[in-house]
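Hi! If you just cloned this repository, the fastest way to understand the data is to look at a raw example. We've pasted two of them here, unedited. The first protein comes first, obviously.
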Amino acid sequence: MPETRRHHISSAVILAKPGCLDDVRAALVYFDNVEVHGADKGKIVIVIEGPSTGVLGDTLMRISLLDGVIAANMVFEHVEMEEEEVHGQRTDAA
């Protein structure tokens, strides 16, 4: 029987100190599985992906420790259930 895996996707908002938005945004490039989707007026909207809620939380905690970050808050989390492929075919395909 194929193994079911979970893939977690979360959105988050980062609040940067005045004058630090560009520096914080530039630092986010070095985080695996983090995409910046917008930045304006001191706020950055990101998406984080990973195999567990713990990985997402750890990534968000590391972002919150960056110089210039006031706060980093998770807004939404979604979990996708993925099944392993068997003989080249996805077993969860309809």
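Ok, and the second one:
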Amino acid sequence: MNAFSRRGACPALSAPMQTGDGLLVRLNAVYVGLSPKLSIGLAESALRHGNGIMEVTARGSLQIRGLTRESAALLAAEVDALGIAVRTGVPVETGPLAGIDPREIADPRPLAERIRAAVEEAGLTPRLGPKVSVVVDGGGQLTLDAVTADVRLKALRSGAGVRWQVSVAGDGQSARLLVAAEDHAARDVTVAVLRMVAEKGREAHARDLSERQLVSLAGWHSVAPPSVLPDISPTRGEISSFAAGSLSETMPHVSAPGVGETGGAGIISPLVGEMSGRTEGGASRKPIGLFPIAGDTFTLGIGLPYGSMPADKIIDLAQSAVTLGTSEIRLAPGRALLFLGQPSAANQSLQTIAAALGFVTSPSDPRTRIAACPGTPACASGRIATRTIAETIAAENADTLDFTLHISGCAKGCAHPGPAALTIVGGENGAGLVVNATAKALPAGYRPGYDAARGIGRVAAVIRSARFQGETAAACLTRLGPAAIAEAYRQAQTKKRK
């Protein structure tokens, strides 16, 4: 399998990945944002060299689809000519408002930069897989709680100062807590975790570390200087007590389930939590709407439906932003764009224009609860018209979509790799319905692909009739159970609403 077809790789600008609609490249831009004019230039390049579809991922990266080997090289040259800074190396991610959010606990950028430098100095980049990542979250209005990572650092207030909570293997809810430390110690623990992962090979992640290794990390009371850290033996799962530096409290009073272990009654898994209506598994505020920055200055978040938009519509929106005085456009985790610098009076006009173009301008928009890949006809791997199905479901069942619905053109599940409350997946037998699992699971029922939206409409009708007062649709789904949900989906007719 060559570099253009290996699944599980990160399709960076220099290493496109083959997908069902051609080559895909991903631009992991540093959070300094782009001017609207640069955004227009990038979208125009995507139109010239790809199929005109641009995406913002759940992690806040930009994807350009439908490229060929030749056009991918031309795109890379044009991105370079535009002077757009593209992140390389192990991803160390900070939030889209890092450093400018008045509500954040600490600016995460200095620590993130020190971690990047330490990772490079230790020579870990070529030894780690392309999807190994680190998150440094300073808190504030747009957290990174919903983003999974091998290592997570979250700012905590500690008296008059700040400590960083270091966790591994998960999102803001599911990650395993290790320690709370000052920034230098937190950096060194992060590098030690990555070194252990690298020792296990390029296919490894932090979730593959042994319980003994995790306990040794959590029990660290001192941290070696960077020159000593390479001598740590991850295969032994032990870390000696070094003389230099003091690691702050190890928080023994906090318990968390180990990797591959079952937590206690107080732990809610992301999927079970969503199905019960209690949590969404690391859910944080959606990056859509207005976010105060300073005084009467606001950042405006505008979402891409299902994370995707034609490049010409992105150009239209960016041109309007130029006219309205926007100085910067940033990518945001959660499949959105943030518009900064425009006068506050311009935000309503920009929202109105975005809505007319088909963008998502309200965090309550039902499309924010649907994950849908390109599907047919855009992707050759797709078996169903995912976006058409998604639009119909969003328009007809907005009152019941308080859970994640995944619509996948095939069993790869590219748009939502994790489990979802309900997943429609295209296959040889039509549109299958998977309950409480991923797109790779065996569907509980089928109906023709063209009729999938009607099947979900029937499920929604059952929810409306069976839901108790005050009960969420997600909780009702849990109570009904997979068999009843699948039966409702398979039924040929949807009851007419009164």
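That's it. A detail worth noticing about the second one: The CA atoms of residues 148 and 171 lie 4 Å apart.
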